[in-house]
Design a protein that fits this description.
The protein is α+β, with helices and mostly antiparallel strands. It has helices at 2-7, 15-32, 39-55, 62-86, 163-202; strands at 107-115, 118-123, 131-136, 146-151, 157-162. It contains five helices and five strands. It starts with a helix and ends with a helix. Residues 193-203 have a biased composition (Basic and acidic residues).
Length: 203
């Protein structure tokens, strides 16, 4: 830390540029991992960095550092309020995507043919950038088809299945469950019929 201070990288003159750079990096990270984990802090640092660049010609030294700290708080609070008030990600009142695991089960549309090696989908409620690289479990999924995320894959490349395939599995499970219940109810009613027959034979 002393080496950084002695080199001048952490001086009040370079601090606005460092804050601006950190804010831009956090904003780019938000685009890669959507869910507003980084965007509010990124905007706060960008605002403080830009404000520091503008104020550096009027204020110097510790005064500039204090001014940038206050700008960070004010811009951060405004960004937080704006994020919640204007519902930029959609789904007001619902929990926003907070990590890649919450992408599992999300539905979307194929924007570029998806194969086991690549493709692209647009997910409903997928965050700041709803377009994700995708691959299929097997076979190809054509552009425009509805899909569901079966494996978020860390949020970088999601694995998807066609909704038609998913619905077929669900329909098969429901039909099998109905058949099991029908068999169980038939098995319960059979002993009663057998008991009645034996009673009538005795008479």
């Amino acid at each position: 830390m002393n080496a950084l201070a002695q080199s001048g990288l952490l001086s009040p003159d370079t601090l606005p540029l460092l804050l601006l750079t950190a804010g831009l990096l956090l904003s780019m990270a938000e685009a890669l991992a959507p869910g507003a984990n980084f965007i509010v802090v990124g905007i706060a640092l960008i605002g403080a960095g830009l404000g520091g660049l503008l104020l550096s010609s009027f204020v110097a030294g510790a005064g500039l550092v204090v001014a940038m700290a206050l700008l960070t708080l004010v811009v951060g609070a405004a960004a937080f309020y704006g994020y919640h008030e204007f519902d930029l990600y959609g789904g007001k009142g619902q929990q926003q995507t907070s990590d890649s695991d919450s992408l599992k089960g999300k539905t979307g549309t194929v924007t570029e043919r998806v194969t086991p090696t690549g493709g692209e989908v647009k997910l409903a409620g997928g965050g700041f950038n709803p377009h994700y690289s995708a691959r299929s479990m097997e076979g190809e999924i054509d552009e425009g088809e509805e899909v569901m995320v079966v494996d978020p894959g860390g949020g970088n490349v999601v694995t998807v299945e066609s909704m038609g395939y998913v619905e077929d599995d669900i329909d098969r499970e429901l039909a099998a469950d109905r058949a099991r219940k029908a068999t169980a109810s038939d098995a319960e009613s059979e002993p009663e019929g057998v008991e009645r027959e034996t009673e009538s034979e005795r008479n």
